[in-house]
Specification:
9 strands, 36% helix, 6 helices, three-stranded parallel beta sheet, globular, alpha/beta
Length: 191
């Protein structure tokens, strides 16, 4: 259901293992490390980790994060009433469409190869186009961390990775937009 990887492993480093797991699997990955440098955290998140915990850590924190990540995955397939703008099976947003039953995002009718987190992020933002969500709100709604207060760089990393797959020019995004000092929003472009 979930992998917990230490960065320092005997045969290969946790970053390499994380990358290999992510090539074939979508289950959540939590990285553990004694390294506190921001670049290590960013590298782990960029390679596909869903969460990052530095040592020493409280076992209760680890268990809470494991439960939150598993809960997020368990909740993903279950869909109650679709958010505003969604039909039962498809969300159409100009050049981007989302097949809700198949959990697939299409750009110009071509499927994108997204991780589960990237899919959940675009689905959440696209369900309310034009509405700005703070990083903390995205941590709560997409990462399922209720009342989250702390490092929200995971959101920035996930947005950057999503833009690399979705945007014509990730440096000049047209779909996943930034509202400076406020957060992110989905701005659909007409076909």
């Amino acid at each position: 259901n979930l992998a917990v990887l230490d960065v320092m492993l005997p045969d290969m480093d946790g970053f390499t293992l994380c990358q290999r797991i992510r090539e074939d699997h979508l289950f959540p990955i939590i990285m553990l490390t004694a390294k506190v440098e921001d670049m290590d955290k960013i590298m782990g998140l960029t390679l596909g980790a869903d969460d990052y915990i530095t040592k020493p850590f409280a076992m209760r924190e680890l268990m809470a994060r494991v439960k939150a990540n598993i809960r997020r995955v368990d909740m993903a397939p279950a869909q109650s009433a679709p958010p505003a703008g969604e039909t039962e099976k498809r969300l159409e947003l100009g050049r981007v469409s989302i097949d809700l039953d198949g959990a697939t995002v299409f750009k110009d009718r071509k499927p994108l190869d997204l991780t589960q987190r990237e899919y959940e992020l675009i689905r959440f933002l696209a369900s309310q186009p034009g509405k700005v969500f703070s990083r903390e709100a995205l941590m709560e709604h997409v990462w399922n961390y209720e009342g989250y207060v702390g490092d929200v760089r995971a959101v920035d990393v996930a947005v950057r990775r999503l833009r690399e797959k979705l945007e014509d020019d990730p440096a000049a995004p047209k779909f996943i937009l930034t509202k400076r000092g406020m957060g992110y929003l989905f701005g659909s472009q007409p076909g």
